[in-house]
Batch of 2 targets.
Target 1
Amino acid sequence: MKGDREGLVPFGAALLGVAVLLAVVALQGLAQETEQTYSHQVRASLTNIPKKDLGKRNPLEADPEAAAAGGKLYEQHCAECHGKKAGGTKRAPSLVGREVQQAPPGALFWVVTNGVVRRGMPVWSKLPEPERWQIVTFLKSLKGEHTDKQNGR
Amino acid sequence: MALLLFSARSAHAQESPYIVTYDHYLEEPGSLEVEYYSTFGTQRGGNDFHAFWGEFEYGVKAWWTTEFYVAGQTTFGDSTEFTGIRWENRFRPLQREHFINPVIYIEYEQTKGADKILKEVEGHDVESDYAVPNAIANRELDHELELKLLLSRPVKGWNIALNPLATKNLSPNNPWEFGYALGASRPLALKASPNHCSFCRENFIVGVEMYGGLGDARSFGLHDTSHYLAPVSAWNLPSGWTLRASPGFGLNDMSHKVLLRWGVSREFSGFGEMMSRVFGGGR
């Protein structure tokens, strides 16, 4: 049938499309193998933040539920790359290290909002502002838990 | 492929409820989102139809998402057809959030004339185009290039998005065609609850989208084309599944009266890493 013959053209293209997508995925995965250590990257991300953002106060600092809610959000959106206990993985740095824990809440909020796109961290402004502050509250609550990223994954 | 997906971890997604409109958020790097959508459309002067498509959306980088579509349709009282493929890429040119955030969208489509997914409206698309029997419509095979500028920004918990589009049928003598989509959406709660829950208000996002044609290079404008208004809703489940529903309504006589859409998707995080282990023997 003529119609069936025509149908083969997009079917072949569909297979080609899947192959291209798999190739992209595989190459991307291989590229991840070359990722380097992160502490200088964290420092770089936390500098060059506009002053007005650095000075922002966490409006949920005193909210007794904020850290728990932030922990839930962290688990849902951040743990995949930063590790279940925020100790870092080969894909993203530790968030329990000195650089992050000593950073002003406004700086962390800015990084969560804007991401570090060039280095693989997406922007998270799709989370409403209060949820981003909940994440910041959670991260600040990790202070003193541990600083060894190897132990905390 | 299915086995690989089963072994990947599912991830809670914060997906937008839009079905036609795009916001500026890309897939997280290394994550694969598998999506299925259905559109039931009414048809004056012909048979109603059910169009459907699958999407495989992968975050290559934080600034680049690639997506592959397969589409088909059933026209009641006629036949079921595979109607084509699409390969879409979205690029984020700016590193940080700005007042308005642009994303560049480039798509190649290879579709039959019987394609009815109405993923966008362009040029002078009108309802009567879809009344043609499948056997006749399938004689047409289109190769199209589609460009969109995805503009979007968060405003006090809302997402506002605007997508102008331009499409070129790659066969000779076809003019550029234009269209638009715009949307606004908001979660039912802006703060997350501390508990893991399926029915928490923050898991539900509702909004509205509007889309339609803008004519072509020979006759630009809102006339002689179709336009739709559609409330949209999404339910993001903690298990990684997202359900979407959207009843759309034609705004003029050239539009289908009703387009009922729904979709289901699931995000698999760490898919890229898993593939690299399979193909590259990575650690």
Target 2
Amino acid sequence: MNYIVFIFESTHQVLKVEKILKENNIKYDIIPTPKEFSSDCGMSIRIADSSEDKNKIRLLLLNNQIAFQEYKKNA
Amino acid sequence: MKTIDAKGKLCPMPLIMTKKALAEISENETLKIILDNETAVKNVTHFLEEHGMNIHLEKKEGIFEILVQKKGNIPETTIVENYCKVENQQISNYVIAFQNNKLGQGVEELGTILIKAFVNTLPEVTQKPKTMVFLNSGIYLTLHDSPVLESLKKLEILGIEILVCGTCLDYYQKKSALGVGRISNMYDILEKFSQAEKIIYP
């Protein structure tokens, strides 16, 4: 299955994003940031690549001025 | 929707049927595959995922249904027999006991995010637990609205036993909200603990 992983600058940012996604009824998974993307032992947000919420999430992050990086992952 | 029934069929039959059916449907169309054993589910799932298909798995009374949306073509030359695995060798003899719906002690919001990451990583761990036990507020992880429900369902389909404390479900009045696993009691749970090679308390 293909996923999109969103990576943030800190755990506090992840918690903030969680709150925003919950308020918007968006389904997501919290996962440890995959080692291949970053070595900072942080947390990331994962959604299925097929999810229609992809753009919704990107837009919400931009509107809330949250810096993020996104990667594709096959798991 | 095209449906194939591969109940009672042994590998590589379910794979052959799946490959053939996928060749017959068009892009983005959905195929339903009905199976009745975990090994077949694992083999078919692995086969589909390796070919970039989106799948959705459901288990109802020992019958598994895989819904797959066709994305691209599976090459005619693919040897389906390569996807036949006899047993899941990766399950070992340890137990994870969730006594809380958070991980460790400290600030609540951190514990909540850590437990989600913990459970969501388990399906990717090489040595999977034999049994997972949910006690006290740990039962909240197994309810319909659990943030880790999908990962737990995936683990259950992989053959990992999920036991949920009945007394705890009853106490929190959540019996009807159980989303995954089997309701169990202290006799069963202690049996599992005493037979385990080790127990992990997240």
